[in-house]
Design brief:
8-stranded mixed β-sheet, 8 strands, 45% helix, alpha/beta
Length: 282
């Protein structure tokens, strides 16, 4: 089975928290910490970006969130703040003082919490295909809450969940080896924890404190997103002082399915955030 070319990865122990899978691409420029979306892992979410970010001069670090891929395994229910604290602990273990934090979908929520809980570790934010709230209506709240019950009660959901997430990581043009690679990566998940993460995502709401964000921020807005509405993405940008919107013509899975559209926009957003951050510390 052959997947896309990836940088070397390793298991890293986070003291008192557990072990997680990390990919690191050395670079002389600023560190970029990549936080992946719900149900995916670092490889599935970011495989299309590693080389481009390296070539753009960034030092790149990506980890698997707890319960996802080869991320931390815990008996405790998934909590968004634990995922943020895991990311902060990883920076400490790697000897990295601070980073520009890039969050995709659920990773965007983790990135927001990382700034709130560990502000000294965040030089800037790039929030992609994400929001300050994921469940507003009663229907949405019930749907997310149901995932918590499934996490406890069901063992038949993994195959269904794998097919669902594969639909946005792959398109019909992908070959059988790519399909096999995606399915193999999805099998690494602890699906009870992943479903619990979905329930936690439904409870996430940063609207009361988002206006306090004081680091340069860019919002990469996926214009045709059917998972996180462009309206919510735009609202996120409007709530953060000085945030700049970078639009991409794509749906929620554009990072994987149309990287030629997404990756150059991500690089531009990162350079913008780095320039503004560098100017602010002079």
């Amino acid at each position: 089975m052959q997947g896309p070319p990836l940088p070397e990865g390793r298991l890293v122990t986070l003291p008192g928290r557990g072990r997680t899978w990390v990919r690191e691409v050395p670079g002389a420029g600023p560190t970029v910490l990549l936080l992946h979306g719900w149900t995916a892992n670092a490889d599935l979410n970011w495989f299309s970006t590693f080389r481009a970010l390296r070539d753009a001069g960034f030092h790149v670090v990506a980890l698997d969130h707890r319960g996802h891929g080869r991320g931390v395994r815990s008996w405790r229910p998934f909590r968004m703040r634990d995922a943020a604290d895991d990311a902060a602990a990883l920076l400490d273990v790697l000897g990295i003082r601070s980073a520009i934090v890039v969050g995709y979908s659920m990773g965007g929520a983790v990135a927001q919490l990382l700034w709130r809980r560990h502000p000294a570790k965040v030089d800037g934010l790039v929030l992609c295909a994400t929001s300050s709230v994921f469940a507003e209506s009663d229907r949405e709240k019930r749907a997310f809450a149901a995932m918590g019950a499934l996490a406890v009660a069901s063992r038949v959901t993994p195959a269904v969940a794998r097919r669902a997430v594969a639909s946005w990581i792959l398109d019909r043009r992908q070959d059988s080896e790519a399909v096999e690679w995606v399915q193999h990566e999805l099998q690494r998940n602890d699906w009870s924890q992943v479903l619990a993460a979905g329930a936690a995502l439904g409870r996430f709401d940063s609207r009361s404190w988002l206006g306090e964000v004081d680091v340069p921020t860019a919002v990469v807005l996926t214009r045709f997103d059917r998972v996180v509405s462009p309206r919510r993405q735009a609202n996120l940008a409007r709530a953060i002082p000085g945030a700049v919107i970078y639009e991409v013509d794509g749906d929620h899975g554009v990072v994987a399915m149309q990287p030629g559209r997404f990756v150059p926009t991500l690089v531009r957003a990162l350079r913008d955030v780095h320039t503004r951050q560098h100017a602010s510390v002079r």
